Amino acid sequence: MSPSWSRRHFLKSAALLPLASQASAAPAIVTGKPSTGLRIEEVKMAFEDFNYRVPYKFGGTAVDRVTLLNVTARVSNAAGKSVTGFGSMPMGNVWSFPSSTMSYDTTLNAMRTLAKRIEKITGGFQDTAHPIEINFLLEPEYLKAAAEVSRELALPTPIPKLCTQVTASAFDAALHDAFGKLLGLNCYQTYSTELIGHDLSRYLNADFKGESLASYVTPTPRDWVWLFHSVGGLDAVTPGELKDRLHDGLPETLGEWIQRDGLQRIKIKLQGENLEWDIARTVAIDRVARETRPDVEWKYCCDFNEHCPNVDYLLEYLRKVKEQAPQGFESILYLEQPTKRDLKADRQNLMHEAAKLRPVVIDESLTDLDNLLLAREMGYTGACLKACKGQSHALLMAAAGKKYDMFLCVQDLTCPGASLIQSAGIASHVPGLSTIESNAREYVPSANAAWTAKFPGLFDTRDGKLATKQLTGPGLGAVP
Fold first, then answer.
1. pLDDT tens across 130-150, in order?
2. 3-state class of 119 per DSSP?
3. Does residue 474 sit within a domain?
């Protein structure tokens, strides 16, 4: 029985079920490769809420709280060994499901409802397979569940694919963690064709025929990765911008963060709707950075969160920054998602001219290989990898990005705890990629409290780097 037949058979069978019963139906998928993977015995999820220390403004919206989705998956193998894997991810509804008509609570409730459906779908998977294969087979069912939830909740805008991927990512992470634990290996040592059961062409395209995912990741992490410190739209760059001090023992201005953490990399959150503000903000950040640490070779990421009206805005921004702060312009390492995430509806905003100046990477747009290839056609030269889109997705897009010679980076969803460990793992295992954000230490340090002492130099840094050499434990490495 071939895997492609089994997927068609499952989809056909599911289509025959009454709509009301599909949400709780257990997917009886048979892949025909029972000896190479895990078998899911039980999946459980829980939510955990934290308030932000200070609001984080990006994409025109200020976020002041986070709900974590924590997933445990008990799995077994053919020999009868049983282990439990763990995955965690912020429910980033403001980023993955932005809306001008629905409230924060409405979009978050949609994600929470969808998570319960995904819990049933994942827990009902009855075959033995590798986590990448499981995610490949189940993502269509996750998307179908998202459409059902959208209808049942009468949402004015359906749950988008990106949001579905974010909701499913903790489940995918738990399975990768569990599979590594079954084998007593770090998960980055489990991506061979023999263990997955297929080459990359099954999950990407014919360009990857005969290729193994293992050839695109390293089995051991690099010792450290650069930390990109985020400066949100409300963050104080200078002391004069502070209205009131928190006096909570943490830095409160950019200069204070630079001094305490030995920063050398900065992510600049920009508006994309106010050119003069964006230029002035960039110039001010560059000035403070150089005054605070004049000996540093600074690098910046400029993130517009898709709010630039067109590519001309981006080109004018670059021209003005170069004019007003030549060193600051030279320090721009890459530009992140300047215009709308729906590339098919925004085909006129080609990035070829901007990409001649600096790499232009897609972030919100990157939900699958088709969008990656479309972005390349439109002049994008890089791609952002995110744990919140799923471990399986991030690794497959890393392989595609490397194959097509694209600039790659890892970005955050203000990931605390286990989700930061997963994100840091990606950053430290993809060759040529050595940067990552770590926003939770700024905005929601309370969510890191239980993890900081266990992973020295990862959650609390003083040299501008995150220590990743220690992430060698079984599974995703969250066990020190």
1. 999 999 999 999 999 999 999
2. helix
3. no
3-state secondary structure of 348: coil
DSSP-H helix ranges across 381-416: 391-403
Last residue of a domain, one of 208, 225, 260: 208
Q: Which two tokens stand for residue 56?
A: 């984080």
Q: Strands, E, within 280-356: which ranges?
A: 299-303, 332-336
Per-residue confidence (pLDDT) for residue 424, from 0 to 100: 97
Concatenated DSSP letters of 146-177: HHHHHHHTT-SSPPPHHHHHHHHHHHHHHHHH
Return the SS3 of 4.
helix
For position 63, what pLDDT does the model report?
97
Would you state the structure tokens that stand for residue 336, as one six-digit string? 């992140």
Q: How far is 28 from 432, CA to CA, in rounded Å?
A: 40
Where on the phi/psi map is residue 154: left (φ > 0), alpha (ψ -120 to 50), or beta? left
Give the pairing type, strands 38-58 and 61-76.
antiparallel
Entry field: residues in the chain: 480
Asked which of 208, 231, 262 is the last residue of a domain, the reply is 208
Are 111 and 258 members of one domain?
no
Q: Give CA 131 to chain center in angstroms.
A: 17
Among 295, 287, 298, 291, smallest CA distance to 264 is for 298
CATH of the domain at 453: 3.20.20.120
Check whether residue 249 and residue 133 sit in a common domain. Answer: no
d(CA 308, CA 313): 6
Which amino acid, one-letter code, is at 295?
Answer: D
- H helices of 184-296, in order, are 193-196, 254-261, 275-292
Cα–Cα separations (whole angstroms), residue 194 to 131, 204, 213, 339: 13, 17, 10, 40
Q: Looking at the structure, do residues 191 and 243 belong to the same domain, yes or no?
A: no
Structure tokens belonging to residue 348: 């006129």
Residues 328 and 422 in one domain: yes
Tokens 């001094």 belong to: 259
Residues 6+ apart with CB under 8 A from 310: 339, 348, 349
DSSP-derived letter for residue 200 is G
Residues of the chain with pLDDT under 50: 1-34
Query: Residue 35's pLDDT is what?
Result: 52
Same domain, 246 and 189: no
Residue 479 lies in a domain: no
- Rounded to whole angstroms, how far apart are CA atoms 275 and 97? 25
Query: What sign does the dihedral 437-441-442-446 (CA atoms) show?
Result: positive
Our count of domains for the chain comes to 2
- Specify whether 420 is located in the same domain as 364: yes
> How many CA atoms does the CB half-sphere of 194 hold within 13 Å?
2
Same domain for 191 and 307, yes or no, is: no
Co-location of 151 and 238 in the same domain: no
Q: Which two tokens stand for residue 257?
A: 């963060």
Q: Are 284 and 237 in contact (CB under 8 A)?
A: yes
- The answer to whether position 473 is within a domain reads no
| Domain range for 180 | 3-208
